[in-house]
Specification:
3 helices, alpha+beta, homodimer, six-stranded mixed sheet
Chain lengths: 121, 121
């Protein structure tokens, strides 16, 4: 798949709330995922598909997603970017909030090999 | 200015090739600019408006810009992103090529405080 094809598929699946399906289908086994900040005692980076899927499973288990809006993708060479706006409730605290973030993805050989998220902390 | 207003102004000026004017008007004195890779012996990061303007002046002096296409902006909270596609000639080598890159910007108090570029190296 070209960068554009990977980008279009990722945005389509994420807009449907199918985040884990998107990771399974489009991420390289060597995916590196970089958050804007590190969790307490942790790292900004998750490496490898198993670690990234586990991060996604934790997120999915702990959030109720009321709506997802994805803008983009915008493609440039081997990279693409999109914005995510999600209305979610963090279940352990019953706290509802809006997440807004920019994501940048790098594609190699038809798979996403790196993702990085940018948001206000 | 809101993030959207800063984003719209940056994209407009850059699409007109007015890169230095955009930096002067929209960047914080404490701007941090991060390239995808470091130059030989150098750093990926430039800090402060003077350093970032100097980087821009070097770039402008060494490239003939035949066309600029900007896609975006896409805004999420305090961040926005855009894609740049430029047809340029690197003057010292007379080498003409197309640059495609994703840029992510962070806005605080109406000024751009951080920019990072993503492209294939």
């Amino acid at each position: 798949m070209t960068t554009q094809e990977v980008a279009d598929k990722l945005v389509k699946l994420c807009a449907e709330g199918k985040f884990q399906e998107a990771s399974q289908a489009l991420y390289s086994p060597e995916i590196v995922s970089v958050e804007a900040g590190a969790p307490p005692g942790g790292s900004r980076e998750s490496k490898g598909l198993a670690a990234v899927m586990a991060k996604g499973e934790w997120w999915t288990a702990n959030h109720d997603v009321h709506s997802v809006k994805v803008e983009g993708p915008v493609v440039a060479g081997s990279h693409f970017t999109a914005a995510f706006k999600m209305d979610v409730t963090f279940k352990p605290q019953g706290r509802r909030f809006t997440m807004e973030e920019i994501a940048v993805y790098q594609v190699a050989d038809g798979k996403i090999v790196r993702e990085e998220f940018f948001y206000h902390m």
